[in-house]
TrEMBL record:
The family this protein is said to belong to: Belongs to the EIF-2B alpha/beta/delta subunits family. MtnA subfamily.
Protein's gene: mtnA
Function, as annotated: Catalyzes the interconversion of methylthioribose-1-phosphate (MTR-1-P) into methylthioribulose-1-phosphate (MTRu-1-P). Also catalyzes the interconversion of 5-deoxyribose 1-phosphate and 5-deoxyribulose 1-phosphate. Part of a bifunctional DHAP-shunt salvage pathway for SAM by-products.
This protein's UniProt keywords: Amino-acid biosynthesis, Isomerase, Methionine biosynthesis
Stated name of the protein: Methylthioribose-1-phosphate isomerase
Catalytic residues as annotated in Swiss-Prot or TrEMBL: 244 (proton donor)
Keyword Isomerase applies: yes
Taxonomy, superkingdom: Bacteria
GO BP terms: L-methionine salvage from methylthioadenosine
Amino acid sequence: MKVNGTPTRTIWLAEDGHTVEIIDQTRLPHHYEIARLASLDDACRAIKDMLVRGAPLIGATAAHGLALAMRQDASDDGLATAYDRLFATRPTAVNLRWALDDMRQRLAPLPADQRAGAALDRARVICDEDVALNEAIGNHGLTVFRTLWERKGKPDRFNVLTHCNAGWLATVDWGTALAPIYKAHDAGIPVHVWVDETRPRNQGASLTAWELNQHGVPHTVIVDNAGGHFMQHGMVDVCIVGTDRTTATGDVCNKIGTYLKALAAKDNGVPFYVALPSPTIDWTVKDGVAEIPIEDRGPGEVCRLWGRLDSGDTGWVTVTPEGSPAANPAFDVTPARLVTGLITERGVCSASAEGLAGLFPDRSAAAE
């Protein structure tokens, strides 16, 4: 995608050919800053502190983090330590484990002196593959959007509601849930996006809105609790979200609040789609509510907000009374029964074991 008209990815190699550069997403939308990752420590901090976020981008960053680690210590112990440290950064997004397992499987049989080069090559491939997967999701999602728009008589405004940020900032490029939006906008479908603010970190208000601005997509930021109201009044034509982990039976784990959007959509007959690349599917999990670990983040994200002050400076503001505790589960699980369909790089399927197995018979069979 583009930043100020310049084609840009979320993660890329620096001019030295091995150091990694990323967009520091904690600084958006008010500051566009580049952070440099030169070591395993840098990569771990970038994932844990959410300089990068979104399941696909977490996986890509972990792959580059392992490559950076191999430049420091390519021994078996070094590989094991790097794997464990990166794996511990965030527990919910399955792409993290997928990328690390992929890297370890390829590196472990190699002599130590070959691992750094092989790790860098594979990390670059993972990034390129992510871009291709997400563009394919966009193409399949465009078909879904076009069909829904035409069924409604091609209205002058096609309203899409999304939650959190599942755009190119959450991936290497294109995004998952936003890829169909970009494709539809570029194809001339009059898309308008209701952007949930997505408390507590405001990824919708800060990141999705920033992305859509960059691409020129019409949108309106709304508070998280407004979505049901708009659905009741016929102002939402389709909901689409991303996911950090999808079970083999079609349950989806996404940013906290997604479950409530799915319930409102179901009650109002609004199609609810989830866009995901196949590395986000956890074939070992059947029951999302019971089995997916939910990341519990610190209370500071709930109690404090970062933004632009009236003075023009940026800073933190405390919004809760001193002494009030806060709970901060980062994700919730939407049961498959509430999901209209899953949009993947191989096409669209029902949110079910049968639907996923139909699109991915090779991976479904391997997991059994």
